[in-house]
Amino acid sequence: MTVKAFVWWSIYVRSTNPRKLKEVHLPPIEAALDGTQFGWQSVVEDENTTLTRFINYQNLEGATVTDVVTPVLRRAYRLANGWTIHGLFDLNLDELHSVIGGWNSKKASRWPPALESMMFEISPGEISGMGEDGGREIAGEPGRTLRVPSKLGLKP
Question: Is the pTM of this model over 0.85?
Answer without folding.
Answer: no
